[in-house]
Design goal:
This protein is mainly beta. Helices cover 7% and strands 50% of the residues. The protein has a 21-stranded antiparallel β-sheet that branches. Helix 1 packs across helix 2. The chain is globular, with a radius of gyration of 22 Å. The two termini are 13 Å apart.
Length: 426
Amino acid sequence: MEIFWGRRERNLIFLCIFAAEMKGARILLRAALWLLPTLLPLLSQGQYITLWHNNKGSSLQFNPDRLWSYNLYEHSRWGGGLKWTLAPRRVDGSQVSFDGHVGYGVQDRQWKGGIGNEIRDGRSPYGLVQYITVGRDYVSAGSRHMAVGSITDPASLAAFMSRRMYDRAGLVWGYRWRVRGVEHCIDATLFAGSRLFDNERLLYRVQGDTLAEADGMVLRWTLHLPQGFTSQVEAGGTWPNVTMVARLLAQYDRKLQLSPVELSLYLQGGITPPRTSYLYMFDLGGTFGAPLYFRNSLLTARPNEFTANTFVFLSLHLGPEKPLWHWWSSFASIGTSPKPFVALDVAWGWLWGQDANGRLTWEGLDLQATHLGIIEALAGVDGLVRWGAVDWGIAAGYRLTHPSAPYHLTQIQDNLALLITAALIF
């Protein structure tokens, strides 16, 4: 695979990075940083870049998603990741692979990393895979995302707006297999770590903050159906403040071709019992303040604004199957391929033990549920400008809430999100 990375893109990238780590003018600098992934036309196929391979199935690959990432706690994280795959001499599809990564956070000044081993049994009729991973990383508290975002898909990077992190060192051991097209995954996680936030602010080791210990063990079963349905069940406990972990999360993600239009449908819901640790509740906070349009997230909700023990989230996205027109200038490397769309996001959530205003104080945190619901109406145009390897567009979303809701905002600018859409062209 060849990577086409010109001087203009390279200089712009490093200028954005340098500016983003400086003080002052934070809105413009963070906007430049958030837009950085759309300037990386690293991949046209797959997630990894092959550095070496042979005809026996062995290979060494680089993972570009480990090169750079961003969140509101660490800010930029720089690092790298390699995957080494070994194929045995017998040709039966068996493989052994080792996957390692390392990264350093600019804001927290901490190293993270890990190494994993995966053994694929080519003789198994169910494609049995055993995997084990050990390492240290940050986990977003209350995360409801079952898929990891990639820099090759900017709209999947809602994790950029994650703030409340949990520092976890642990061991994961599990199995993955497929029966009649249905993929099953069962694993166990034993971990030790600390909470990197309190009710008022984020906490940092380098600033001498005291961190609350949170260790535990969790068993997880994940089920993937080819029709777009995924479910995840988790059970276990945490200590020294003993709390039970029990959580069910399910989602349906499907794109329906209704020629001449297509409808993207995303439906997600989850439930936990009362007195569940905040780390395993559901964070319904959104991405307000980011310039990019992120899929399957409340675009007008603030990060960590809402939390729930049980919730439902629905996202509908309707647009034409094909662009209205297509024009491209090979001389200027610019063009247009517009696809207008309308979208609707709806969310509802509930906290066990909440008061009449949907509020609850739990584990020292003041939480708010979307107990009266929240609606976002959105419209935009994808592919308004095609420049290089990126389709750029614009979108706007407006937040609608019940006037009596404690999270009802009266100012137009507080309810309005003006966004840029970006998609790499493969």
